[in-house]
Amino acid sequence: MKTKYIFVTGGVTSSLGKGILSSSLGVLLKSRGYKITIQKLDPYLNIDSGTLNPYEHGECFVTSDGYETDLDLGHYERFLDQITTHENNVTSGLIYKTVIDNEREGKYLGKTVQVIPHITNEIKRRIKILEKINNYHIIIVEIGGTVGDIEILPYIETVRQLKWELGYTNSIVIHLTLLPYILATGELKTKPTQHSVRNLMENGVQADFLVCRTEKHISNKIINKLSLFCNISPHNVIESINTKIIYDLPNLLHIQNFDKKVLKKLNLISLKKPNLNAWTNFIQQYKNPKYQITIAIVGKYVSLHDSYKSIKESLVHAGTFQKIFVNIKWINSCIIKTKNIIEIFNGISGILIAPGFGNRGIKGKILASEYARRNKIPFLGICLGMQVAMIEFARNVLKIPQADSCEINPYTKDPIIILIKNQKNIKNKGGTMRLGNLKCILKKNSKIFSIYGQEKIIERHRHRYEFNNDYLKSFATYGMQASGINPDTSLVEVIELEHHVFFIGVQFHPEYKSTVINPHPIFISFVKESKDYINKKLNTN
Questions:
Q1: Which domain holds residue 435?
Q2: Do 439 and 324 fall within a single domain?
Q3: Do residues 268 and 321 touch, judged by C-beta distance below 8 A?
Q4: Burial 385-415 (b: 16+ CB within 10 A, else e)
Q5: 436/258 Cα distance (integer angstroms)
Q6: pTM for the whole thing?
Q7: Which of 263, 280, 297 represents a domain boundary (last residue)?
Q8: Could you give the angle at which helices 277-287 and 309-321 cross, rounded to 10 degrees?
Q9: CA-CA distance, 413 to 423, in Å (whole number)?
Q10: Alpha-carbon gap, residue 481 to 445, rounded angstroms
Q11: Active site (catalytic) residues
Q12: Which of 1, 121, 187, 307 is at 20 to 30 A from 341, Cα to Cα?
């Protein structure tokens, strides 16, 4: 069958959840037998998300093929339970760079290079690449930003062109918008949405569906008003009410027959009866847990929780899988001091030290690692979190007071953490780290081997620094084992502490592979051990 396209745009304000909407619709269409993928078009001029500050854009998600992308690709993978690649994320920076490179090479034969047709043609080419990769039936294309932004105009123009080129039964536009609730008058206001849709129409694009983000249920009166002023059938005005958990949205959309209406608009029928049992069971377990625990996430970007989005969701997946509700206590590592550490970690079931870069907040992370080690609190260190645990162990157990990372102190006499050899001559920061899927061999009879249940694993990476193997024997002598090694480079991928209930550090990022249907085994084990630890502590007291 000819590939169908669904374009998702947003209006009124950013951060309404276009990625969640796209992912939820993807789940519903996949449940009806269609082969689905989702693509994100980002209007910013960065080539990728690799050099963006987490406070600017949330976490940087890494695909299996080693591309640094927008965090929405994490949503796509977690919802659809399938991998994405670099083709699933396109930025304006990448588009413009490609066009400029083509012009320099003379590929346009001396023609004046313009937004139309050169930029729009390159956007179209990038969109259509996915058609050929895996014979997808339906491709959902999420356009970042909001209608009315200057930088989004080339994408809206591309949609206008594609609607005509593809044919009107082969593509649809879904517009996500906000219905603000005015507390003083107790009513939902439609005017911002009307202006947003009008702006879209002024650029030649008519939305086929209007999905309304709202705090309150939408009345028929509101639906009819939106239909009248936005030129959309009232049957195609869909409610997206705020929920306590994002994974509720597929069911809420399904109840409104959103997926069925979308297929009808695309001139398609359901290939099979939709089965959302696994999804519904997940929601039920989330809402009816048997246990509650509190995990401390220690990092320096904790004031914006999206900076650690994949870690947060991985804990949700692992907890729900075991009917455990995971409360998260966000702890800024910069505030951790010796005098307040007991108060900060009071009542904590487990400690997770998050990844990151630079020296800000490192002292607090080292103190947190020491506190978990000495008090036998379940501990998981990810990337920099593992490196911090190694530095702390070297200083306080191996009695190497100057032990440090070359990232933090390039002149340290005892470099426990060093720059990877092939990174030494690299000057450009974007897209040059050790990225994507890499192999790891786990030692049998280790904790990590029992977690995975297999010797060979593949996990995603994003780092420049590694453990210095010159210190490997010293660490092993005192009970800190390297239980996971890269077979090609001998780089230490996993460390674990003997005689501790759960003290594991990983150089890779397991959070990138956790999904709703398949929670990651490391997080499952970490959550379980955290629950057992706090229960034992409470029973002892």
A1: 289-540
A2: yes
A3: no
A4: bbbbbbbbbbbbbbebeebbbbbbbeebebb
A5: 35
A6: 0.94
A7: 280
A8: 90
A9: 20
A10: 12
A11: 383, 509, 511
A12: 307
